[in-house]
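Predict fold of Protein translocase subunit SecY; 423 aa.
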Amino acid sequence: MLDTLKRAWGEEEIRKKFYFTLVMLLIYRLGNNIPIPFIDAQKLAAAYKGMEGTLVDYLNMLTGGGLSTLSIFALGVQPYITASIVMQLLTVVIPRFEELTKEGEAGRKTIQKYTRYMTIFLAIFQAIAITNGLYGAALSSATPFQKLVMNVVLIGGTMLVTWMGETITEKGIGNGVSIIIFMGIIANVPKTLKTWKTGLHYNTISWLSILVMAIVVIFIVVFTVRITEGERKIPVQYAKRVVGRKMYGGQSTHIPVKVNMSGVMPIIFASAVLAIPSTISLFMGRANGGLNQFFSKSTHGFIIYLVVQAALILVFAYFYNMIQFNTVEYAKQLQQNGGFVPGIRPGKPTSDYLAKVGNKITFIGAISLALLTIVPALSSRFLGLNLSFGGSSVIIVVGVILETVKQIEAMLTMKNYKGFLNR
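Predicted 3D structure, encoded as tokens:
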């Protein structure tokens, strides 16, 4: 990985993409430290104290602490992620949206436009929920005009962060939205280390607990890399055919089926869905109660949260893989090109076989993601270590790094091909 980064830094075009990405992330971090107008910092801090340990605290971690200080980027990219989930669901159940996915770049732009509209709607809903629910008591003295300004700033901040994420994907390095979430998580590491240092000083935390947690984190990193890189190779044989005086085909190849084909997306999607009940509770003015009580540090709330999160990861892993690995389309293309899986008839039997293998592989990957999310959370609870980032956050960080490095490697490969063709 370090060798790849070193070679990438030597390429001027890729280096410019690095600089662009860093500038965008710097703007994001600066915005996360700029509070919206007409707020009282002390009242906000007092109101947020009751949120610690709930799902709101987890959402605050994903935004890099912007929710606790009510910064202009307090909503982060969560509305955009939720809108993306809804649009992907619609492409499965609505034929018109399914047709758009097959129209290439034009269809993708149309879907992206609808996603932005839905992002605005969700941002409006969440902004009102925050100003009237989460911080309703702290902002009770604000005039209607002041609250309107606050909501407009929050919505504008979300759209700006969304634009930054899309622009990083287009002109920078990696998936922009994932990179922004990655940056929000990383920003919490100094806070965690400071908390541990204070705990050691006052003997509320032992070195043994920190050592065990470090081992757990290393295990997560190693296992995540193995799961991300693991794949099942399905053999494919192409029949020989004569075209004119030349013979084509006859070679053997394989279809690589990734164990974790969806990467970190199931975890990110699960986080976005888990934000919905919290937002509803905030909108109803029940910041500490309502649906939020089921996602708290209490024993029953902690268990419910882990179970729901694991279930959602399983669902989204299957859903995301179903979209990416279209077995019917694969079987059709193989048949058209004279390819077949040894021992399996072309057509529907091939499609069924690919689906069966894909489901088994997806189950292993989904269970692995769920376990990697639950184990660190349980370790943190039993060891008594207050983590500002959870196990799912470590998986997101590792997954984003791996995906970004792969994209950089692809850029270097393309650069080498261009250089070879220009010779």
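The chain has a mean pLDDT of 79.
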